Structures
1.
Amino acid sequence: MKNTVKKLIAFIAAVMMFAMVLPTFAAENTEDTPAVGAVGEGYVVIDCEGLTLGQGYYCEPMLLSYEQIVNIYNASHDDQVTVETLTAGHATLVMYELMGWEYHCTGNIPSGTIYISEIKDIDTGVIDIPEVITNNGSNISNDNNDGNDDEWLGEFDYSWMSGWMITVDNFMIDVGCAGWLLDGNHSSHPISDYDGTHIIRWQFSLDCYGADLGIDTGWGNEAFFPGADKGELTKLYAEIKDLTNWFAENPSARQAALDVLTHLDATQEEVDAAYQMLYNAYFLGVEPTPGIVDSFVVTDAQAALGETFPVTFSIEKYSNLCNLLYMNVEYDTDLLEFVSYEGGQLYQAVAPDNAYAENMPEEGIVECVVYSQDAETGEDIPIIIESDTASILTINFRIKDGAAAGTTTRIGLSIEGYDTVEGETIEHEVSPGTVNITAVELQPWQIALDTTLEYIFNTVAEPMVGSVGGEWSVLTLARGNYFDTLSNEYFDTYRQTVIDYITESGMQDHGGTILHARKSTDNSRVIISLASIGIDARDVGGYDLVTPLFDYEYTVWQGINGPVFALIALDTFAYDAPEGVRESYIENILNNQSPGGGWALGGVSADPDMTGMTIQALAPYCESNEAVRAAVDTALEVLSELQRDDGSYASWGVVTSESCAQVLTALTALGINPTADSRFIKNGNTVIDAILRFYVDGGGFRHILSGEINGMATDQATYALVAYSRFLNDQNRLYDMTDTMPEPPVYQTGDIDMNGSIEVSDALLLMRYAIGIYTLTDAQFALADINGDGYVNTIDAALLLREAAALN
């Protein structure tokens, strides 16, 4: 008991001593008090951050000397530490004690295994998850998360992959924090501090084990963004905050630094610029422009020759009202061409209401002048700018056609305004004030793709239901993103054409609507096309095109084409199918593999067209089905052997663009880059080189090299290039159209045929299932349990019949 009291008194004394030191630092510099910028060996800067939740700092960067950490820690813990044995864990617990936080942890300091699991009462309860997390594949968002249902913030809050993570000197340490000796030798990471000062950051990771912090931990998730090294800025901020009173007199400079420090995905350029601004302001007396804190982002850092790209500048007003404001953007006139200016009214004027902005381009200068006009006299008058308004300015440039690919240009921004209080001109040059933009030449395949998408749109102006001039043209335009959105007149017209065609020519059979008595591929083709434009083929004007593909005998009747395209169609929207349907088609396909590998419509020799199509159908199952993987691997060997010296493929002895197109689509479906995989490069030629030999300048493709533009060849070659483009841009593969899926409809219990109403026909379907002559999908089964007892039987059918009769 006496020892405990002595420890408590010692701790209080140590904390009071620590608190008394800071004003001494601020008052004057002595031999024992380092100046800002002179802090080095024997110091730690430590903080605690909730940036992934949008909650900023829980503990702002705190400057501590080794001696302070040792004294405070030893005053409250039985295990004693020295300067030589100081770890990141000791510094962490001292921070918690100084902040007065309760915490839970596993392990302990002496064992070197301590892990901080949660901290009490720091979560504000208000989340604003940055878009860089929600837009990078995270399973959580501001509207969809598990929440934090208690007063502790730690592991498993908000997501099952959340928790506290620590970096020391911009390195995520690979041992417990108590096992990381601050001045020790670490085989995993050499000592790399900041002029003798260690920067310790505790960050709450919301998802993917630190990927949301800009760190690739090697645990299976790539970093969501390139994490910036904030060490120098963090150190300078902590020194000024804890050694001086300067921030009290310069709150805008403090806020400017905080804005960058607490910006989760701040770029290295932004961090370096903030450091330089704070350094210049404190050490050189070069204050930032009154009221203006600048940051700017190139919204498209890479543009092709001849393309227009935007450069966006964001200027935030914090204090000191300004009026007439000039923003001068300097650029290289040999490389760039000014196109237009966007942004509308740059600032919200207090008076009058009709303030406007105008641009006056000169060679190399875009001068954006903000002013307003007196409503009565027409005289220009100053705009009064509110201190908390924000402005977005976008200037569109075009890279000149004559510019060499790979050229880099520099764009600079300077701001000039007039202080309304002092009446003095203020000028500010953004530091570093430059951004790099690289001109990139369009590849030949990109030119062929762009021109042929335009060609298809112009020549297939009114797509019909059919293999040529119909579904494949629609799919190509949709998956090639020819239109900005899937909601447009072209696709709406096609949808209505399909409905009209079904109404006139469709037949009710095999549980739904069929388009051909024998060829299930007609249904599959239309299903695929409709999925590409976001339409569920289970209800196309009231017609169900999907259910007939559950009928095995109907689907496989026409040979291997049937199950191949049925699988592709069913997987476009991951349609719910009765148990065993997909498995039966996969088994059929594997049983029909050619003796040497690969597939063909007939005979024993593999055909590149059919082999390519079949691989496209099997691609989604390669990871989960060993037999599929083995069959596909063998087929790839066959395709490699079949490839000719010029990179092309021949079907039935004739080299065609379609054969090349199906192989290219197959390779991209498997995530294989045909320009990098040596198996598919012959004498330096790839299948893309081969396809481009069939291209006709201005748009379109030939079937054979000596032929004219061919509709089917054009569709297949173009959607193959679309598949390649999607592969390069990490988009869904060509036939994975879950990215276009509409929100699923909600059906009432009992609506077995899912047509939006409960009828006697639903009860009859249920009765047919109960007596074993009808198969329900999983979704239908969930709707069929009328009494909720977990079973579907004749009792449910009787209840549903009674309900349907009463409703009708």
2.
Amino acid sequence: MSQISLKKLCAKKEIMEVVDELIQTIGVPVTLKELDGKLIIDRGNKSDGSPDVSQKSKYQIALDGEIIGWVEGDEKSQAIARLLELLASKELEKKALAQEVLDKYRELTLFYNISDKILGIVDPEKVANLVFEEARKFIKATNGIVMLFDDSNDKLETIAAFDSDPEYLTEYRMDRPWKSEDFVYEVATSGRGEIVNDVSSDPRLVDSQLLVNSMICVPLKTKDKIIGAIALGSKNPVTYTAEDLKLMTTLASQAASAINALLHENKLKESRREALLFRLASQIRLCFDSDCILTIALKEIRRLLQIDRCLFMWYRPAKFPSDPTREPTEENSEIFGVWQVVNEASKPNLPRLINHYYAESTSGEITRWTEQLLRLKILRVDDMNRLEDEAMRDFFNAQGLVSLLAVPLETRAGKIGVISCSNCQSLRPWSDDEAELLQSVAIQLAIALDQAELYQQSQTAKEIAQAKAEELHQALEDLKKAEVQLIQSEKMSSLGQMVAGVAHEINNPVNFIHGNLNYLQDYVKDLLELVKMYQQEYPSPSLALQEAIEEIDLEFLAEDLPQILNSMRIGTERIREIVQTLRNFSRLDEAHMKSVDIHSGIDSTLLILRDRLRAKPGHPTISVIKEYGDLPEVECYPGQLNQVFMNLLANAIDALENAIETGVIAQRSPTIWIRTEVKRGTVNQDISVNAQEQYSSRVIVPSSDRAMIRIIDNGSGIPDPIQRRLFDPFFTTKPVGKGTGLGLSISYQIVINKHSGTLDCLSTPGDGTEFVISLPLRQSK
């Protein structure tokens, strides 16, 4: 049946005015009839109304190939038929346009309604339920389902469904909803919506024992991809139309965009959460200090959530009951149950909250919010003014908090900590995602804090172990030094005993000889006088006697014998002097501290070393210049101090011999200067700063009158790197077999430890070396 009726068309005044005007113009009678022959109008026939059949022809009026009426008249009336066809076509276009406008309005209304409602939805399932609600206003359906592709396996998964019979809702949640997954999957993958008004006739559905009779299914399609499908069905027979399919497509487009945006936002939130957790884990892994870990975590949380303040606090339980009305402080916090804020990240204009805060009410009971946190429950307050607990509201308002989200954590040691996020200037509704994110961060933070605590414990144990190792090492070094000193002391003692013994053994016969030389000289003198008297009394001796006098050369003997006796006296005195020097050097009878003449010890040492000072082939004489000052007796261990003089003078001789061999002092005479003086009331100012620091860290140098002994040579000098190690045990620059590296080390110990003095080396390479000994004249008791 045609959408346009000729009778209704001719009933319109404006159309009939045009038709009548054309009839008058052509001037012929015209009759218009419906398709069934019923008369509509009759113009220009006889007055009695009878038609003039002989002059009339029949012309059809057709619209889109379908006859809607007839025009009867002569040949000119054919123009009337064409006019009516044109007017009918225009009328049909107007009707179609009106329907299109109506459909568009309907579609825009639906589009606006669903768009307006979707804006506030944050869950894809709620978006799907909204689509069901809007679709059922215009499309008959008893059940429906929304399915989305799983990115991991490209399978469809149900996110929402409805059914007029609740018993079947659970079936929609199964892997094969409606027993027609293949049909829905085909629509979803092809991207083309379909209508099946008789599911029993569709080969894709005939074997599936469907719960519906009719189905309409459209894909959820965004600009970029297909994310799933929406299907509606009816258990009652119903005919879905193309308009229904178009409407469903519009709904699906809106739903797809909203669902895709939510999925993308959820993925973004998830990726942000994972990124935060990964970034925190990466940065925290590099920190082994709890304060560093908290600083990083709080800054990252505040940056991600865009909040005013993020802080961390520990719960410190009360150790002893106390008056809760007292203000908690860092000094008395141990006797109160308090929350201690230890780290904070906040806007620069906000006051700092790092402090101690009571975890107990004025009556001594644990506050409700403390109790909640201690039970590891999240404290979530979107609007502090709506908080029912007045005490909690007053407390947080006093801290300037408007919104609060506090997430507790517990370490392996049982310590309770809290991550507190808050806004101070505007309300901040907290989402479930943010709460879950903070819970994940709290887990990471608890692990990191446990690791930091374990690391600190290991570091403490390491430091203790290192300290013990250093003590053992130092004890070992001290034992080694003590062993070296004992060995050296034993050597010196043995040498002293040997020297004393040799000196004693030599001293006895020398004293015997020296003591008898006086008598011998007198006896010889008497005998020579007697011979002279015999020559005077008997001027003419016998021939035999004359021969004997000539043979022994009596005259020469009388002159030479007194000189021989005098030389023997000088020799024995020299031997006695050497023996006394050896005894003075060994000082076996002076093992205790006593006041002695330092100069005599130096002289004794020089006497022993005299042979090394003499000229040798290729080595000139080494001059010794004594510049002794007015030095009083010094309280010391004489034998040990002589050992120091021996080591320093022997080293000076070695340095000069080496300088002679290498030609360093070819232009100057090898010389050793020995200078002594008294410094009144202060420590020697000539000692280098480096040496003063070195000595001051090992010994307390008394400020008093001091004896200064300087031993200077003009050899090749000592480089700086060697100077810093001169007094280290076993350090030597001499070839193997010529030095043990113990001489200066032992000298240092004797001067520093035994005499509370200082021993310093001042040297310029190429110009010589000066050793400065500073000794207190009197040792402190």
